[in-house]
């Protein structure tokens, strides 16, 4: 969940100094983006994978610090809750066989975590939301004991005043209403976040294309249908995340409430990355006001590349589903972080999801200027919510060739229509043709058989519930899930009997 810090208590002057530095950082970023050649280079792809640790019965085991201490792998880091870990995968060229490289790295990193976890009696589960989670697993004691997480929790609770978190999620079959006092609910969510390096001059088109592509890809990638024993959305993560870290208290005078820190965005990007960073600074007060010694203005004036540490830290506390990233490495560059996809079920499924998402983004970017007038942003947001809620059963709105636009189309039909575009985007970027065909073939089979991770979990749970109570059925279902995931077979090939 972002950069490490070593401070937990902040004074008003810390916030004031940090806000001044944010303003200076935006000024420096604008100058940097205007510098000829800045951020230009071949596209690269990387990823971050979040994991859960479970005991022999499949229930969460809060031993992330102990497991981390047992592995020397620098790619492995702590996450929000004590049963979470994150693996940061090394970026590589998009051209060639990038998804094969990512698959191999995921498997090697997870194997290292699995070996370290075994020394603590833990196993690794890769799934969007652990289906065996109980309320007792998510109390304040679940928070990983790191300054960043304690400070973030304190800042969010302080902004809310005495108002507890209210979580309300209504699925097709069941609903959840919950009052909570800490941010630990967010630790239930685990994802695979792809990073794509983008040239500054292409950023607006690529980002808007990513926003368009997210809904149809999410509809066919769902893997989070269960939370606290309830059957909710195909991607319950989407509903839970927004509510679990909402720093807004009761509405103020006139019913006004600031914007949520978790959002799909507020409109199409018109110019470039700068407006997204400026928007994050304008809409959201600092949460972790740690100010460094570097002067971004002086670094830029000297022709150097500033770290912009404060801006990057602030951006890490504003959780857009597709997020703009500035990185000073490699001479400085921009990335899009795709945050909507869940972890799991298997490595093959995850890299297939990524191939579909990145390929479709690349293809749509080529004609996005013609697509945006035919799909007002409010409909793109609606697509995102419907895809998260209903998965393969969602009806999405998509730009039409002639008025009236947009037109409704079933997610399954839209995905079939978009797969050739995704292939064109991948091959056009230099991705190996056979790799593109193999991975997009996984998506095609998933749609044809109508079996995502979310569908499989629901179907197996229904069968098991006819034989045992739900709590036992959830644990038994997860055990089957872990066994099938270890086989490496994509989820569409898993039996439900």
UniProtKB/TrEMBL annotation:
Domain of life assignment: Bacteria
Entry keyword set: Ligase
Keyword set includes Ligase: yes
InterPro entries in UniProt: GCL_type2/YbdK_subfam, GCS2, Gln_synth/guanido_kin_cat_dom, UCP012666
An example Gene Ontology molecular-function term: ligase activity, forming carbon-nitrogen bonds
Pfam families named among the record's database cross-references: GCS2 (PF04107)
Protein name: Glutamate-cysteine ligase family 2 protein
Organism: Myxococcus fulvus (strain ATCC BAA-855 / HW-1)
Lineage: Bacteria, Pseudomonadati, Myxococcota, Myxococcia, Myxococcales
């Amino acid at each position: 969940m972002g950069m490490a810090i070593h401070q937990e208590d902040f004074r008003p002057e810390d916030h004031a100094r940090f806000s001044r530095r944010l303003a200076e950082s935006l000024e420096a970023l604008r100058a940097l983006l205007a510098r000829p050649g800045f951020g230009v280079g071949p596209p690269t792809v990387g990823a971050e994978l979040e994991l859960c640790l479970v005991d022999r019965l499949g229930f969460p085991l809060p031993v992330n610090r102990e497991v981390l201490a047992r592995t020397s792998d620098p790619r492995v880091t702590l996450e929000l809750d004590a049963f979470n870990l994150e693996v940061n995968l090394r970026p590589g060229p998009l051209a060639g066989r990038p998804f094969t490289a990512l698959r191999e790295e995921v498997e090697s990193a997870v194997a290292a975590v699995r070996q370290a976890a075994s020394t603590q009696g833990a196993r690794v589960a890769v799934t969007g939301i652990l289906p065996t989670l109980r309320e007792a697993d998510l109390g304040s004691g679940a928070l990983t004991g790191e300054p960043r997480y304690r400070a973030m929790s304190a800042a969010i609770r302080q902004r809310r005043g005495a108002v507890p978190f209210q979580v309300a999620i209504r699925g097709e079959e069941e609903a959840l209403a919950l009052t909570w006092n800490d941010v630990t609910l967010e630790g239930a969510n685990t994802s695979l976040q792809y990073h794509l390096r983008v040239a500054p001059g292409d950023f607006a088109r690529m980002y808007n294309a990513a926003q368009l592509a997210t809904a149809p890809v999410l509809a066919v990638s769902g893997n989070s249908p269960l939370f606290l024993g309830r059957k909710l959305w195909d991607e319950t993560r989407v509903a839970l995340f927004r509510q679990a870290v909402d720093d807004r208290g009761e509405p103020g005078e006139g019913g006004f409430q600031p914007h949520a820190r978790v959002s799909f965005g507020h409109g199409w990007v018109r110019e470039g990355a700068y407006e997204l960073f400026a928007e994050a600074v304008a809409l959201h007060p600092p949460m972790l006001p740690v100010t460094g010694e570097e002067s971004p203005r002086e670094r830029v004036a000297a022709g150097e590349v500033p770290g912009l540490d404060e801006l990057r830290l602030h951006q890490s506390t504003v959780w857009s589903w597709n997020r703009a990233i500035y990185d000073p490495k490699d001479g400085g560059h921009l990335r899009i972080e795709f945050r909507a996809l869940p972890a799991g079920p298997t490595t093959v499924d995850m890299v297939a999801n990524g191939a579909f998402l990145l390929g479709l983004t690349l293809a749509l970017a080529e004609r996005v200027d013609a697509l945006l007038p035919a799909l007002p942003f409010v409909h793109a947001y609606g697509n995102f919510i419907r895809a998260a809620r209903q998965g393969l059963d969602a009806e999405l709105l998509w730009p039409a060739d002639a008025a009236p636009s947009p037109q409704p189309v079933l997610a399954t039909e839209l995905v079939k229509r978009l797969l050739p575009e995704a292939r064109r985007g991948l091959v056009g970027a230099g991705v190996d043709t056979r790799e593109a065909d193999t991975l997009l073939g996984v998506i095609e089979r998933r749609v044809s058989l109508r079996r995502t991770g979310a569908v499989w979990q629901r179907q197996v749970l229904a069968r098991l519930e006819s034989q045992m109570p739900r709590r036992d059925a959830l644990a038994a279902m997860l055990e089957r899930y872990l066994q099938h995931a270890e086989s490496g077979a994509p989820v569409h090939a898993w039996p439900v009997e």
